[in-house]
């Protein structure tokens, strides 16, 4: 890896040359040695992609040789000093991660140059030359030149400096000076400040976790995230500071970890370091963020392969999150052991007057946490494994980590006998239904493995990542988030945001059915079969085991089977079309089911991620719910197209009461029936005004914020001619607008009236101040001043971090979902110019587009078009469907090539 004999020979040659030439000779040799050494380490690591310890040590060894070579060159070639004074002594110390002997391929090289007194000119020259040689080798060097006294003073002021020095390692130079430094740190800095150090490290950890977010963030930072390397290092720092250990293995005899827990520590550390090293090698820089593109590359480098309906990257990330959970468990256990001895005591007055919660027999309170008084007695009744969580919810207390440790090591007590015990079933349902905070119980049960032990089918989805940009959480965390949403709605905390769901729960539903359906709705994920169908089959076995009656089992099974139905109908279909509501009502059949499905749908969408739910989705779900409820209660004739048209015209006349009667007659007579049912009266008013004032061959436009829908409504009126819809989508793509809904209608007197709902790149309505510029750019494009196909090339690029996503294209034709139109559903990879490409391909095939409904799920989009052919007929012919599908696929693939750059 590094030939010390060859370097000694080069150094001897360099000494015979002028200093600058000698230095150049040494640097050239070191550069070649560094390149060869790094290549050898990387090759060995790629051959054994999980062997991180030999890899981090090898990078440390290579760096040691390079640093030593640089110092030797500075001391012998550049600044020889055959008779140094006592003040001209120098010790080179590695600190931080480098001092610990753990280095990723592009880790920083942190050096402390130690001198006995104030730095001399000779030492300054040696240090400067050393650093320049290391910089020439492109090493990222962090350095400080200090005396021992400086180190003690600065370490007392700054915990970051103190932590770096805690992990010091002597490299070369004056060993006696290094030894003095080591003893002074122990005696003058570390001794007696243990409590202060622990509190500083815990505060640092809490701040880091706040910055990084939850453990299950889908693009975690391997070093800084919750459950990452820094958490493990914090444990070791505290252990070293207090117990003076040099290796984590020494924490086992001290009773801080059991043998099993230490194996978990080593396993997590090895996995996280392997991940970090692969990240560095793949990106060729010091990156610690597991972005989507990096996840796929690291999974491949570590040898994961696609299998059983799951991608390699999803299996890799599941392993990652499971190790992150282990780190969390170990952290809790370790810190609890320190609490009794080192944490600050509560002030006396607080201890006297603070009311301690009363706990049931068998429990006690230790450091404000719920602990088990008699472990043997606790384990004598296996139901106590559930009662513990119930008592924690009842008292509002955190569970003591020793109790968690006991539960985790006795999960084998949760067997079939216990799962079928009616008392156990009741206790489990009580955790969901009784205490108003089911999320807390479920999360802790999940982390300790109790949830998977009680419902073995849950094990498969624990820490399961869904490799897409839509889901912000792992599958198990998503389920817990959904349950948390339901609990908040029940407590009346979301009445303003969710009036319909809140009123449904206030009126009353079967809470047991709803909570169990939410808990199990995604239990079928991660397999080759459709997760809704498989999940419903699994419910037949699981729900009776949870104590549900047969009619409740049937309802839960139906909810799991169709848990996506309402979301799909609302987001992928035109809910202004009576046929959509009619078909949905037939599928749901009863108001009771509609109520349950509506609440489940809302919780499911809100549980996907913090920004997934918005006003647009809320308006769609509410409208579908209200129309379907009306149809189920008053009969399907309530959806009659003629009735809705008459009501819409009546609303328009009322809104334009100041118009002359003749103008109103012209306006109400010029539109076909679909126009009246497809738009709200506010859009009818806007279009009426545009039509009344339009000039010959003019394009009239109105841009208006639609705050109820979190979008900007763009209305267009112009003389009708082929390809208008495609031109409009092109113009909107060029200004960076995301179309979420589009409606196109022709009038009886030769105009086309289009309404688009658009959002900016962040998914928000356009700020009113941006609308004039937006209008101008759209006008230029529609006037032909900008050629869309040329201009869109630069705006249609897929971002690098999103290139790893694979979304297969599916195109379906549905002639049953609408009375008038063929519904073409295009499910494919999203990109800015996609809607324009599809509508342009349809225009080239003489397809008339009446409506386009756009539903986006991260990198995936479902564009649904309501269309007729040039004769106003549906696309019944299989030949016509295949021809059109071929053209649409060509448009998608050509656009994808353009976007790939």
Describe the structure.
With 901 residues, this protein is α+β, with helices and mostly antiparallel strands. The chain is built from 39 helices and 15 strands. Helix 9 packs antiparallel against helix 10 and helix 38 packs antiparallel against helix 39. The longest helix has 31 residues. About 1% of the residues have low confidence.
SSE layout:
Layout: H1 4-15, H2 19-47, H3 52-78, E1 91-94, H4 96-100, E2 109-115, H5 121-136, E3 141-147, H6 148-157, H7 159-166, E4 169-173, H8 175-190, H9 194-212, H10 229-243, H11 259-283, H12 292-301, H13 312-342, H14 348-353, E5 363-366, E6 369-372, H15 375-379, H16 384-395, E7 398-399, H17 401-408, H18 416-419, H19 422-433, H20 438-448, H21 450-454, H22 475-490, H23 499-507, H24 511-520, H25 531-545, H26 550-561, H27 565-572, H28 578-588, H29 591-606, H30 615-634, H31 641-655, H32 661-669, H33 673-678, H34 681-693, E8 700-706, E9 711-719, H35 724-734, E10 738-746, E11 751-759, H36 771-782, H37 788-791, E12 810-814, E13 822-829, H38 834-844, E14 848-857, E15 860-868, H39 878-900
Parallel strand pairs: 2-3, 6-7
Antiparallel strand pairs: 1-2, 1-4, 5-6, 8-9, 9-11, 10-11, 10-14, 12-13, 13-15, 14-15
Helix pairs in contact: 1-2, 1-3, 2-3, 3-5, 3-11, 6-7, 6-8, 9-10, 11-12, 11-13, 12-13, 16-19, 16-20, 20-22, 22-24, 22-29, 23-29, 24-26, 24-29, 25-26, 27-30, 28-30, 29-30, 31-34, 35-36, 35-38, 38-39
